[in-house]
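Hey, I was hoping to borrow your eyes for a little while. I'm sending you its amino acid sequence along with the backbone structure tokens. Take your time with it, there's no hurry, and the full record follows here.
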Amino acid sequence: MEEEKRALQAMPPWSLRISNVVGFAVLISVNGLVQSGWLGPRNSEISEKFSTPLTPAGWAFGIWGLIFALQGAGAVYSAFPDGYGGDGSKQRIVNAIGYGWQVGWYLESAWQIFFMMETPGAMWICLLLLLLALAAFGWTLSRLYRLKELQGPLSSGLLYLLYFMPTSLNTAWLSVASGLGALVVPASYGLRDHLDACAVALAITVTMAGLVIVHKYRDSAYGLTLMWAFVAVYGNQRSPSVRITALVCLAVSFMVSLLTVLRRKHHVQAGERSDMRQPLNQVTDRV
């Protein structure tokens, strides 16, 4: 554990800091070209063509704008020397993320290219890319959870906003997108007979897995992302079974997320009471 702490406290290498900026630039460039229609049909047009019972309303995809904005700011901030040193929080969180963001970005960029091909074979590749991107961001998020376990809560709201929050949002949204991608594959073959039942099963699976994360790590951002997704699914679908499932998943996500916030508040208040009872702890620890 001590070796792990020392590795996280080291100054992040320039290769990591610069490649973060380069990787994000590639992501935004590919996204811009695809969404502008210069390379072919836009993602929104293809999504309509291969609509599934788990496809959310179009406005929900605006979450990518928030994710990309926060990650871009985080990538740029990691490259600048400001904030390194001090209590070591910045270097620890940049080291914890490592190359995980970059791997996820390149996989997301590749997904956009293959999605434009609109063939069943390409949709299989897209599903694989989504699952790999989910694994990359999930691994990165687990590293951040581990950092929190080793070092305690982040001392800076800025670091949470630029690193922890976008990683959580991206991971949660990719979990939903992976479920959607699994339904696009049969839809690309014109097989739609049992998609509603599959959508219900996938929605429940994504929700249960996500809420374990929300409850265990007190990650309310993850829970809010699931709520965002299921509000959009509920509003965009007409199948009673899918709408009921989306509503139940939304309600359960809300309750667990609310419980997480209350648990965190109780934890902070308990810590404050402990500090008031033992005001000399910091001094005696150093003596």
User: Anything to note?
Assistant: Residues 271-287 have pLDDT under 50 and may be disordered. Residues 2-277 form one domain. The two ends are 24 Å apart (CA to CA).
